[in-house]
# Entry
Amino acid sequence: MFSKLQALLKDTSIYGVSTILARGLNYLLVPFYANLLSADDNGIQGLIYTNMAFAMIFYTYGMEQAYLKFAADAAKRNEPTDTVFATPFLSLLFTSTLFSTGIALFAESLCDAMSLDRSAAIYVRLGALILFLDTLITIPMTRLRQERRAAKFALIRLSNVAATVVCSLLFLIPLKLGLLGAFLGNIVGSLVSVVWLLPTMRLPRVAFSHALLKELLRYALPFVPNGLAAALIHFIDRNLLIRLSPEDILRIYGQAMTAEALVGIYMRIYAFSTLLQLVIQMFRFAWQPFFLQHASDSDAKVLFSRVMTLSSISMIFIAFVAAVFVPPLIQTHWFGRFYILPPPFWIGLPLVPVLFLAPVFEMMNTNLAAGLMIEKKTEALPIVTAIGAAITFVLCLVLIPQLGMMGAAISSVAGSLAMTIGTYVFSQRVYPNAFEWGKIGLAFASAVLLWWVSTQVLVSLLWQAVGVVVFVGILSIFFRREIRMLAKRMLVRQTALEKPSGSE
# Structure
């Protein structure tokens, strides 16, 4: 089992390094956006990108997951995969063209729906182009994952983000295009990915299959309501926050500001929690092919339970460290010249530890969903996420008018927790497994206690460092089995390396 965990770790590491580098490059833009764009422009950009992420679910309608499943099945049967690739690719090409054309035609009406001024229609149209380009590469990029060509996948992602960052900075600073430059930079990055993948888009003459498309849709479409509900959990908060009245904003924060500015502040603080999302993303890239490959192994359930423990506790540790150190990093006046986020954004700092809880629950949910996918019971996913979305929506309606951004953050986390509980219940019915909830719960409680002591009671950098060291000690107890195995392997390898010199 340890060798299988190593294989998962290897793929996760490749995806992870590329994802961390990509997001790291991308997050270089956050302080530039915060310092060079107005809070209102930050809010407009954040709201449009939020709804683009929501729209992307319609654009891809579960074909990524369907392709992974059907391509894996074809590979096991030693069958060619040309048709399995071409059918979802051509389907997405056709529908994304229709969707983006519709968005471009009705951009002003969409601005009204988002409570934005109609002058933002140009950004909505540019967003439609980005959605089209990103959909075009969805299946080619997924094929790289399915074929475990992680290095090429990583190279394309990094090229995309590097082009986005460089062009965005060029458009923002020397050319002074403002918010328009941010969107144009993203378009250039997406075009770079398309150019990389053009050779893979050459299809055989007879490759599309209507019969296969029906099977793909039957598997894929249940992911759409599930994805929509999951997106609502993450994004309904700012779509309701934009509707907060000036009177409520003044009452909650004691100062006048526009709803767009409030959303801009919320989005920039929220961006730090999405740094944790990249850990889940890189894990998911490796996890989906991994559990499908090992589902029929005799020790599959033991293996999956151990993966749950390792991944969940790792995420708890990352969230703990981030919750402790992100606020002081934001407030540091670097080199006496600039802040990561300027002082007007600091009213959002209390959100940080709350928002960092959501990725912990999402990591657990990613593990739990494997049972439903293995048993092809994906129809349960929409039910689970609909419950989570409903809880998020209701709590947002109740809490945002009272607590503003904090109400939005609490609602988002509550939705993620509800979805995790629901996935566990449904997954245990069709694919029961024994998880190490005691260890996970103890790690979670330890993290909360140590965060409270080091940030609310003994407030100093020293005690924060002590808290991290203590938590590392706790983790070493949880991972002692893996540490022993790793140490044993390193000792064997070292002995093997020393043998030739000893024999001489």
Remarks:
- The first helix runs from residue 2 to 27.
- The two ends are 37 Å apart (CA to CA).
